[in-house]
Specification:
Helix content is 45%, strand content 17%. By secondary structure, the chain is α/β, with parallel strands linked by helices. The protein has one domain (53-274): Vaccinia Virus protein VP39 (Rossmann fold), CATH 3.40.50.150. It has a seven-stranded mixed sheet, sandwiched between helices. α5 (124-127) links the parallel β2 (113-118) and β3 (132-136). α3 packs across α4. Bound molecules: S-adenosylmethionine (SAM). The site of S-adenosylmethionine has 22 residues, from α3 and α4. It comes from Jaminaea rosea. InterPro entries: RNA_methyltr_RlmE (IPR050082), RNA_MeTrfase_FtsJ_dom (IPR002877), SAM-dependent_MTases_sf (IPR029063). Belongs to the class I-like SAM-binding methyltransferase superfamily. RNA methyltransferase RlmE family. One of its GO terms (molecular function) is rRNA (uridine-2'-O-)-methyltransferase activity.
């Protein structure tokens, strides 16, 4: 009898927990367009609202790791930021706003030159904005990656043989199916492609960053250990509070690009051919 009552209490608590989390998720949706709700949750607001609630994930990650709004004299302000899987543009908005300062304690620094890429179109109010360079295309297509690299060099005037990007952000995710294995494999292909792009385009040194969404899996963790952890000084895992509780996504925040040395390129080749 006592056990039955305990189980019933446990089920009720779980239901309340789920309901509370759903309410919080709804609040994040409202916070996109309601500055009072945003303020009550400790989130920034922007005139006209954020295009996606995902914008808050980038805010949270940057609050923790400070790749867009560096603090402390030793850190440098990013000049060139690439936003992969950018549509409709919540992260692009947040990357701009974080740099410009949004009236709170984040201060005011010159906005970086942004390069946004997605298969889908970016919201028109962003796509044609000064400082935002948008390319529509499939990032898994090498020609599209080359096009993005050429555009970065053309706009920034950085010589072709030098990497010119300070921060690569990737919120890319292919359409998910009910199959976890397919979803994690699709996620890892995008992560590998973003890393491949970093090898040519991300500056080498302590102030460069790759911030990337991944669906965690054993295969992803093996690849991270064999390749990513050799190519960066540090790799951390962060789960955004604003991610849906049901989502398997986490973000890997990689700091201090070392380039493709340390045997990482051979490992990358082995993994890509075996995948
Ligand atoms: C979660 S959404 C990104 C939301 C975005 N960060 C925002 O705040 O507006 C994931 C995006 O990844 C894009 N994507 C997925 N696979 C891609 C690929 N191979 N090439 C380019 N974009 C891709 C999708 O089109 C989708 O817009």
């Amino acid at each position: 009898m006592a056990k039955k009552a305990k189980n019933a209490r446990h089920r009720a608590n779980r239901r309340i927990g789920r309901a509370a989390r759903r309410d919080l998720e709804d609040a994040y949706v409202t916070a996109r367009n309601d500055e009072h709700v945003a303020q009550s949750l400790g989130l920034p607001s922007t005139p006209g609202g954020w295009l996606t609630r995902a914008a808050f994930k980038l805010f949270e990650l940057d609050e923790k790791c400070r790749f867009l709004t560096p603090q402390g004299k030793r850190q440098t302000i990013p000049k060139v930021v690439v936003d992969l899987g950018a549509a409709p543009g919540g992260w692009t908005q947040m990357a701009q706003s974080a740099a410009e300062g949004d009236g709170d304690s984040r201060g005011s620094i010159a906005p970086p030159t942004l390069f946004a890429l997605d298969k889908l179109p970016l919201a028109p109010e962003l796509a044609y904005q000064e400082g935002v360079n948008f390319i529509q295309g499939d990032f898994l297509d090498f020609e599209v990656q080359d096009h993005l690299s050429s555009r970065i060099h053309a706009v920034t005037n950085i010589p072709l043989d030098q990497p010119g990007v300070d921060v690569v952000l990737s919120d890319m995710m292919a359409n998910t199916s009910g199959n976890r294995i397919t979803n994690t494999a699709a996620s890892l292909s995008l992560v590998m492609a973003a890393h491949h792009f970093c090898l040519r385009n991300l500056k080498v040194g302590p102030h460069s960053w790759l911030v990337i969404k991944v669906f965690q899996s054993e295969e992803a963790m093996r690849w991270r250990k064999a390749v990513l952890e050799r190519c960066f000084d540090s790799v951390g895992t962060h789960r955004a509070k604003t991610s849906r509780v049901t989502s398997p996504e986490v973000y890997w925040v990689c700091r201090g690009h070392r380039g493709g040395g340390h045997g990482a390129l051979e490992e990358a080749g082995n993994h890509e051919s075996g995948f």
